[in-house]
Write a sequence for this structure.
């Protein structure tokens, strides 16, 4: 009999206890950053940052809202919890260095399930050279909650805020948009099909890319590295978690400006486009409001155009304008309509 | 009609939305620490710490496990969520400077309920000069979850770890023990009585102190200030969240030592003592294993005895011994028994 059919005895969390669980989950942690002076194991971790600035961000993920365990593999969940937090540090043009990870789980979860989540957490931390320095575990009466806080560093002159954009700055976006949302819709559809007939096999042929964007988003460290290499400093930057339109609003409002976005410039992959049509959703709406892209939205001066124009992974989608013009979308046929942010809302989720 | 009888219209969270809620909760935040360069409002907060060490700790509080909303006032819950985190920074002999606060709530919660939690959070931050620099809000399918990360600073030579104790060092504890646990038992008892007869009024006469220790613990900043003033540096320190016995084990094991604790030296207030008896609980067990005291357990060299002997709020309860002696409790009648840590366990809570 292969491993596939092996019946492993699972370890209930009540058997190992909180301290046992913490020891078990943290025993293999290796610290890689010199700024991390002391990690897990005391009342607090100890860090040292010479003259650098320190960046701090936090995100909480809740079962049934941010993820559905019927189709979200636990390793990927752990990976994603770290990835979305690192994305916030990259969006400040900084380097993530440490994370704390807290989780609350129902005691019905097994140790092996928690280990899977942690294996994804470790994988993400290893991929991006981030130290796990602490956390907390707690019981929950219902559901799984993951709360991550990330710390990063940056030279004072490198930090990029949301509020630094100027009129006429070019608006750029990395990668492509709407794919993670299409991945979510595919998974939700297959869940419904599976409920009706558990013998149905999911049909994801050719859609791996969409699923991967949903289940295993990669924060754009490569873009920050490129900025360093090419000596580019965006004037403003934000990561795209709630949908492009919502982030354009944030960036514009913080900078005291409006923005003009060109529909034809929105980077939408063919698979995303086709899948949106399959779901009778306007691909542009998917790109503007889908959310969870974890790409970077940033502005640069026109002067920097030459430096980035050759990168296929960066699209120039519009420019910043005076606040009085507001936020406008120029459609493919040249019609101007007000940009709408229907962004994902934590209290009104798609169900 | 007095305010007491006024029927206020409550605001459902779905009406205000996530961004509205964040704006609403953070609009009155005033930053007080010069190290806080930029707080709420971007992808990450920005901090600067010259040559100091930075301390980081995090705790997650879950409804039904750490608190019961049938008797836990929301303001106090917010206060306690901050207090227990600050306690971890004080336990490193550091100064807390910033917090991030994430909460996941069911959409059945009203805006006003969340405001109450935040008013407690603001109160605690104001009392201890701590800046709120970020956080996240999310929906939960069931229950309330509060996740706080605290950042603090310390001069490199001041940090006190759990692992620094030496043989013969004196073991000290601040304040008194067991009161928070008695407060919890009182509240649980009244809840049972109330369920049986909702017209019953709770009888907490003379027990305010116990309730306060449970509902509104105060982290021991005053002790850290005293250390500064008297030039005392503990050799090891930990805060008492899971019960004295459990923390003595942590401190001893990290330091590679055992410990001898004298029962007669345990600081137990008369009200705690009497209430324990009322519940047919050995007061010593309450002091050793009750938990949630949020006092400090620390060790000092015998040389420092003169510096602390006059402080009524610090009790010397024993001393560190060679590891081979293990952890022993010397009872009031001189009998030696192994110390037992039955500490509160996140996966086996009292219900």
């Amino acid at each position: 009999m292969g491993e596939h059919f092996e019946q492993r005895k699972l370890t209930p969390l009540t058997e190992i206890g909180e301290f046992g669980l913490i020891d078990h989950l943290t025993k293999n942690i290796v610290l890689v950053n010199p700024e991390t002076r002391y990690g897990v194991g005391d009342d607090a971790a100890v860090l040292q940052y010479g003259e650098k600035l320190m960046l701090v961000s936090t995100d909480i993920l809740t079962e049934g809202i941010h993820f559905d365990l019927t189709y979200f593999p636990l390793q990927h969940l752990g990976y994603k919890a770290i990835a979305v937090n690192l994305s916030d540090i990259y969006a400040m043009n900084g380097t993530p260095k440490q994370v704390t990870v807290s989780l609350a789980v129902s005691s019905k979860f097994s140790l092996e399930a928690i280990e899977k989540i942690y294996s994804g957490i470790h994988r993400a931390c290893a991929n991006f050279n981030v130290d796990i320095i602490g956390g907390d575990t707690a019981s929950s009466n219902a559901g799984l909650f993951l709360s991550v806080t990330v710390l990063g560093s940056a030279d004072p002159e490198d930090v990029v805020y949301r509020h630094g954009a100027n009129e006429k700055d070019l608006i750029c976006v990395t990668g492509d948009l709407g794919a993670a949302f299409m991945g979510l819709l595919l998974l939700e559809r297959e869940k419904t099909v599976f409920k009706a007939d558990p013998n149905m096999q999911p049909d994801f042929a050719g859609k791996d890319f969409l699923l991967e964007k949903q289940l295993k988003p990669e924060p754009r460290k490569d873009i920050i590295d490129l900025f360093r290499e090419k000596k580019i400093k965006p004037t403003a930057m934000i990561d795209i978690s709630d949908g492009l339109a919502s982030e354009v609003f944030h960036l514009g409002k913080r900078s005291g400006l409006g923005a003009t976005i060109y529909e034809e410039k929105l980077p939408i992959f063919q698979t995303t486009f086709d899948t949106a049509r399959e779901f009778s959703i306007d691909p542009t709406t998917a790109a503007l409001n889908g959310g969870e892209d974890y790409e970077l939205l940033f502005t640069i001066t026109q002067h920097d155009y030459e430096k980035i124009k050759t990168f296929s992974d960066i699209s120039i989608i519009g420019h910043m304008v005076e606040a009085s013009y507001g936020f406008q979308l120029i459609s493919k046929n040249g019609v101007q309509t007000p940009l709408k942010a229907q962004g994902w809302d934590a209290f009104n989720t798609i169900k």
